[in-house]
Amino acid sequence: MTIDVRKFCRLAQQRGLVGLTDSFAIASIGVTHISSFLFQKARFLENILENGVVTMECANRFQGLCYEQVVRLHEVMEEVVPIHGRGNFPTMDIKLKDLVQVVREKLRTDGVSVKDVRLNGGAASYIFGTDNVRSYNDLDLIFGVDLSNHNELQKIKNCVLGCLLDFLPDGVNKEKMSSCSLKEAYVQKMVKVCNEHGDRWSLISLSNNKGKNVELKFVDKMKRQFEFSVDSFQIILDSLLTFYEVSAAPMSENFYPTVVAESVYGDFCEAWYHLNKKLISTRNPEEIRGGGLLKYCNLLTRTYTPVENIDIRAMERYMCSRFFIDFSDLNQQRQKLESYLNNHFSGEEELKHDYLMTLYRVVDESTICLMGHERRQTLNLIHQLAYQVLMDQERRAHIKYLEIQQFDQLNSLTIDQVFFHGPFSPNNGNQYFNILPTSSVFQINGSSSCPLCPTYLQCS
């Protein structure tokens, strides 16, 4: 399809997507690069332009980033992410910007057509959110590619592994590095999906010991691209990458690239409102692998609340039913829960127990697809994991106690108050393990002991 540049500029100005900033940009990059610069800006409209008309339904999915959001995006792209190797393989420190540019260029060199590159998931939500802390776990990148030929999947795999070779530290003998050894050392998981629903995509996840994995998705078709409205944002990076390539001038409030984002949920403004008001909304959770159950309980734990116009109980029942269809075996459920805890609560140990108790409540109240003994087995599994979390917390508390005791002895200090945060006990949970009553403040004297501390941990 041929896009009339003048027509595009007029249309984009009407939509507020191209302004004075682009005049500065075009002036700075020179005549030879103007068409390339504008073409990258036009890419996001290629799929919705039809005979020069943009429907409001499609236009509502897109939104241009303001200067502050572009700066946030630039900081994320400049972030150095360690990719940890197994065994004796060295750690690779990679800028996200460099990784995207190298992979995209390598794909095109190898004959794989790349339609666009997008930032997705928690990192994209962070760009539009109000939190100053980077609380996202994974860095999700989506490369739009054509996978109608199955040979393309092998090309993509070889391309990514070849790019990893370029990022190995100086001094490493790269000649002895095979694709197989690089895969074993740096790839956490690889997934290929081609099913009867028309989905065609693959995933290569690069490992990070702190759970901040870099996930490269190569997508031709994906029926369901989001779980909830708050994680439906996809930021199209092509114009930013072009800016990096053709402009030597740094960004400023009067000079920065026009970057466009899409909400695959549908209405961008609605999804943005849900994100900033911490609201939970989704559509057809039975279409999501796992039903979105684990993510839903994660959002509840982080004080998100469901929107008012949905039937919460019905939504939870759909989530539970799909989860137990996809993870019907108890061992599968254990592996999934342990993996989710490790990947999404890294550095947030105190939230793990609250999360598991929230999950327990939802499964207990909304599961209708299991036999009685199957339901009890799953609830018992969740309780066992919660008990393990409490034991881990007690071990860490004991270590801290020993450190504080040593500090007290050196400084002649005495602790006269201990503050406790007691665990939450779901209904009908005592058949698995007992939870003692909680108290907010416990006064310590010589004749009493703390009811919440283990026997080996003295309170004074």
Helix content: 40-55%
Question: What string, H for helix and E for strand, traces the elements in order?
Answer: HHHHEHEEHEHEHHEEEEHEHEHEHHHHEE
Number of strands: 14
Largest sheet: 8 strands, mixed
- Could you give the distance between the termini? 76 Å
Number of domains in the coordinates? Answer: 2
| SS field, number of helical segments | 16
Low-pLDDT runs of 5+ residues are 13-58, 428-448
* Broad structural category: alpha+beta
* Mean pLDDT over the residues: 81
Report Rg. 26 Å
EC number: 2.7.7.19
Protein name: polynucleotide adenylyltransferase
Family: Belongs to the TENT family.
Catalytic activity: RNA(n) + ATP = RNA(n)-3'-adenine ribonucleotide + diphosphate
Describe the protein in words.
With 460 residues, the protein is an alpha+beta fold. The chain folds into 2 domains: 1-277, no CATH class; 280-460, no CATH class. The chain is 46% helix and 14% strand. The protein has an 8-stranded mixed beta sheet with strand order 1-10-9-4-5-8-7-6, with helices on both faces. Strand 2 and strand 3 form a beta hairpin. Helix 12 crosses helix 15 (349-366). The longest helix is centred in the last third of the chain and has 40 residues, at 372-411. It is globular and about 60 Å long. It starts with a helix and ends in a 17-residue tail after the last strand. Mean pLDDT is 81; it is low at 13-58 and 428-448.
